[in-house]
Write a structure and sequence with these properties.
669 residues; alpha+beta; Alpha-Beta Plaits; Beta Polymerase, domain 2; five-stranded mixed sheet; 25 helices; 22 strands; globular
Length: 669
């Protein structure tokens, strides 16, 4: 089969077929399109490990993780970059190839992934459901759209008129033909050691005689995990109760395995043993234990309803699937942050907002949030702070009425320009009053606030932390942009994106992967300090350590996150202090924190004036308390209380259990 010819006659159109669906360049009727989408199963079956190169099927486990020829990949990148008006699909391919050039191991995710391209809107999706939803919402009235799948480019495409013939002649397709031809030369059949497996959540390496690494999905040793059989211990003696039942815990761990502590009340100690084997063993020995320690043991069951979404259960049960999801997500976010078109749209939005406040004379627009620190998707909202009359340092931060009046004024300005602004909404009862709107020319949704520039300092700090190494960025992406979204945790009344980011960063501080803020702040000379709303917002960036790509470390960091946050009891009694990177007792938080020698005079003075607020927000709260790094009196997880905290910790525990039994590939990927 010749795939390099520009002539369609010499191109085998079987590459545009799917095993379960066939799309030629004949149009698909719009009322049958969704039905057709559901039959596009190529690439949606997560258990399938095949990629296609030309007319040859390659088992993904036989793909060598050797570095492709840099010259060839760079040449393909250059070809894509030279297109005068590149499409988003062009950007997607170019950035994917750039990632492969930087990290050769990424080639496995790229060759096994599928993309979904709407040529009508010039948008690329990495999930079929998102593509289908986009079509349903925006294009369902189009008659006779053209839909096809290209097995060379691994892309499904929908357009008004572009056909297979047009696609085959495109630069993107020709580049992928060259790439696939190159890949065919890189393939060998390895001798895989079939004994490779995961044990206790860790990944082992399989290597061949020539020391090249190959990938093979391996089923770990099966352990029956206990999810709903609880053990209650009663009549605990005073001796066993000492130090929060430390002796009793030691006996249980030594003889029956690890457990999650559910409650430790006056007359009752309830635990959930990790393994069912431990449950059976302790109940088998119950008579002997009751006699030896004068205690009473009994078990009870709770409904084992899954708290996790089906997608989480699938992806966190297979390391290869999860890596592919993360590769797709990070590639998409990179397009959003680096695309010159997106930057032009942001600048246009900022100029428009600035012009709305022309009567204030001195205005400055600041972008903050995920668009700045690199966690934004193409459809993410834009967070803007408008500095009115040099209010950046917090001159109106305590004047809520002033902020509300500005929200109302700018809402009126937007409503007077219906051709530019739609869906204008005033949110005046929030902690920070904001104006929400849709900017028609740029197709961007925006949240506009007026309080102070504190949010921009937070954004700069997060951007620094995410840039320390790729593993920090990967972990934050996995939790904030994937796991939390899948399981309905990201919501204004639950976790904000900002809170989730700091939840991950605090965990990384606790294991010394990223430095605490106090270390960065103490490096700033007194003359260079910045104060906003009375809080010291100064910090110095440390040199970034040199690190190598290590998938095993990513696995362990991810597993460690869920293990850390599964301890509900700990978070009911501790404050997570992002300033110091350590936990502090809630009951003494104000008195202990204000004594810290690391706190600067400015911070201490401001903190003292807010004692009653800190008492309510930290010491008296039974839920999760995560201190803001700069605004030290603000609990950024104030909505996570009672049952919500229990649900969150249980979800972390259940995800950890999934990872214990995770099907894996070679950790060196």
């Amino acid at each position: 089969m010749s795939t390099t010819s520009s002539s369609l006659d010499s191109t085998d159109l079987s590459i545009f077929e799917d095993d379960n669906a066939h799309f030629s360049d004949d149009s698909v009727q719009s009322d049958n399109l969704l039905k057709s989408f559901s039959s596009l199963s190529l690439g949606t079956n997560q258990n399938e490990k095949k990629s296609t190169v030309g007319d040859q099927e390659i088992n993904q486990s036989n793909l060598m993780s050797q570095e492709p020829s840099c010259n060839i990949v760079k040449k393909l990148i250059k070809k894509l970059s030279e297109q005068r008006k590149p499409s988003k699909f062009n950007d997607f391919l170019r950035i994917s190839l750039e990632l492969i050039n930087q990290m050769p191991q990424a080639i496995n995710s790229f060759t096994s992934s599928k993309s979904y391209y709407c040529a009508i809107c010039d948008l690329v999706f990495t999930e079929e459901n998102s593509w289908t939803e986009h079509y349903t919402t925006n294009h369902s009235k189009i008659t006779n759209p053209s839909v096809f799948y290209c097995a060379i480019c691994h892309v499904y495409q929908i357009s008004i008129s572009a056909s297979v013939k047009t696609h085959v002649k495109s630069l993107e397709h020709k580049v992928m033909v060259d790439f696939q031809e190159h890949m065919k030369k890189e393939l060998v059949t390895p001798n895989i050691n079939k004994s490779s497996k995961i044990s206790s959540g860790k990944i082992t390496t399989t290597k061949t005689e020539n020391n090249n690494t190959y990938y093979k999905s391996c089923k770990p040793k099966q352990v029956l995990k206990n999810r709903n059989i609880y053990l209650e211990i009663k009549n605990i003696s005073a001796e066993l109760k000492k130090n929060e039942c430390s002796l009793l815990k030691k006996v249980i761990r030594k003889n029956y395995g690890e457990f999650k502590e559910i409650s430790n009340k006056k007359n009752s100690f309830i635990i959930l043993l990790h393994d069912k084997e431990g449950v059976h063993a302790i109940m088998k020995n119950s008579d002997e234990l009751e006699k030896q320690y004068s205690i009473r043991l009994q078990t009870f069951e709770q409904d084992s309803e899954n708290k996790l979404s089906p997608e989480t259960i699938q992806s966190f049960s297979d390391w290869e699937i999860l890596l592919k999801k993360m590769f797709d997500l990070i590639s998409t976010m990179k397009i959003t942050s680096e695309d010159p078109t997106e930057k032009k749209k942001l600048n246009k939005l900022c100029d428009t907002v600035k012009n709305l406040g022309v009567k204030f004379h001195l205005t400055n627009v600041h972008v903050f949030g995920s668009r700045v620190y690199g966690l934004a998707m193409i459809n993410s909202d834009v967070d803007l702070y408008l500095d009115i009359g040099n209010s950046f340092n917090g001159q109106i931060s305590n004047d809520v009425d002033r902020q509300v009046s500005l929200v109302k004024y700018f809402a009126q300005q937007c409503n007077d320009r219906t051709s530019e602004f739609q869906n204008v909404e005033q949110i005046c009862d929030a902690r920070v009053p904001i104006l929400k709107f849709y900017h028609v020319p740029t197709k961007l949704n925006c949240d506009l606030s007026f309080k102070s520039g504190l949010s921009t300092s937070n954004t700069k700090l997060i951007k620094y932390y995410l840039s320390i190494n790729n593993e920090v960025h990967w972990l934050v992406t996995c939790i904030v942009k994937y796991w939390a979204l899948q399981n309905g945790l990201k919501h204004r009344q639950l976790f904000t994106s900002y809170a989730l980011v700091w939840l991950v960063l605090f965990y990384l501080m606790s294991i010394n992967i990223v430095p605490p803020l106090v270390k960065l702040m103490n490096m700033v000379p007194k003359k260079n300090r910045i104060t906003i709303e009375g809080w010291d917002c100064s910090f110095e960036m440390l040199p970034k350590p040199k690190t190598t790509e290590d998938t095993e470390r990513r696995f362990n960091l991810l597993y460690g996150f869920f293990q850390y946050y599964s301890d509900e009891k700990k978070f009911k009694s501790q404050v997570l202090c992002t300033f110091t990177g350590k936990c502090m007792k809630k009951s003494k938080f104000f008195s202990d924190f204000i004594k810290l020698s690391e706190i600067k005079k400015t911070q201490r003075a401001k903190f003292k004036t807010l004692q009653s607020n800190i008492y309510k927000s930290f010491e008296k709260r039974n839920g999760l308390t995560l201190q803001d790094p700069f605004e030290l009196s603000f609990n950024i997880t104030k909505n996570i209380t009672g049952d919500t905290l229990t649900r969150f910790c249980d979800m972390c525990y259940e995800t950890m259990v999934l990872m214990d039994n995770m099907t894996a590939i070679d950790k060196s990927q």
